[in-house]
Here is the input.
Amino acid sequence: MNKFKNRMTLHPIMTFVILIAATIVFSGFLSLLGMQATYNRVSTSGELVSNLVSVQSLLSLSGLKYIFTTTVANFVSFAPLSMLLIVLIGIGVMEKSGFLKTAFTLLTKYCKKNTITFVLVLIGVSSSIVGDLGYIVLIPLSALLFKYGRRNPLIGITAAFASLSCGSGLSILLTAIDSALRTTTLNSASLIDSNYNIGVMAFFLIMAVALILTSIIITIVTEKIVAEKLGKYDFKDEEEEFEIGKKETKGLIFGLGAGLIYIIFFIYNIIPGLPLSGSLLDYSQNFYIDKLFSVNSFFSNGFVFIIMMLFVILGLFYGIGAKTIKNNKDFAEDLGHSLDEIGKIIVLILFASVFINIFKRTEIGTVITALFANSISALNFSGIPLIILVFIISAITTLFLPSPIAKWAIISGTAIPVLMTSNISPEFAQTIFRFGESMTMGLTPVLAYFVIYLAYMDKYNDNEKPIALFQSLRYQLPYAMCVGALLLALLIVWYLIGLPIGVGGVAII
Here is the structure.
């Protein structure tokens, strides 16, 4: 019976094939039923604009033409693919040279496993400041961190993805996404109060508390629940305990020293006002975070390459110091190390990109979000029931429309006026929205970076039975439930006490 189940377990690639076919058929069925929704959106001029959105059928000749004509271009431009390939070059040098093995062995040897997990999770939850790059960098590194610490790499991968997804809406500093959401919030708030303003530090206090508490709860869930589910790992390459000698120590000093110089150089070039500094910023923007991460900022456009070069420098100079890189041939081979045996990952990303592309094209997520947004005013809730309603709507709609900017553009036009009428501030409304989507961001394969988590779960799987897509989602479910309960409780307590949520930011107006 167990052998039969093993054979019948669908590989993630086949699951995406089924999801693609189901989306095509389902879109045709919903379009035939005339499924559509109208939502209110506030323009930059403060005018309320009504938008009608309908499900677009792909079960037609034009739909099939769209799939065939956009698949290649969409795959080539699929952000997770290009970012992963570039970052893996740097990770390959660090891994093959021995830098990661030495550094991670040193860390795991002298730190408790709970401490290692907490630091990893804290970094993941805090990494929203660098956008989606955290998914590309932290997931591969977390696998190696746990592997060299002689723990199951799948635990590290699962914890890293949970921290990244649950932390996606928790940012102490105003990120580029938060800045865009803030603009949408102010536009919607102008329907009630045209002079309303939200400062850049308006969310600081509640976000700081949420970030710490979320890191703690994810660490507990990892160690008490997920680690037990995943069990022990079969280290097929058993070897004697790795000893850090003089060569390894010298390599670490070389690598970290060179890396520190590189980091100082780039930090200096993102600080405005100093002699010859700030050359990586976009000075057409008003806020510093926008200067740093705007679409025209050199720092933003080159950030993935900047991280790759940091990793290359760390690995290269470690190799020179430890004499694991003796010539240009060694270095060239190290550059391609992490790209070896990446074929299955690329194929998986291909089918994930097709699924996400056609799902967006159907507008199913947009229609569902609009229908839920309309229920906010229809149900006529206030106070705590209204907070719970908006939180739940944000959580549910994230499963179908992960993009916070697109989602908030649909929800805010209805939610903000209703919440303000109930004396709940616009900045607290945005916080409710961000907390809600943080709960379920890791539970949807529509999220582009979910495929990175899935690919690395498959890569480090030591069982003949593949880790199915829905099985990987089940590993994330305890995180979603615990973090969701925590964040909702935090919102309710904050509302009842009436504490400021940040500098100039309030919960009740």
Observations:
- Residues 469-497 form the longest helix (29 residues).
- The longest strand covers residues 36-42.
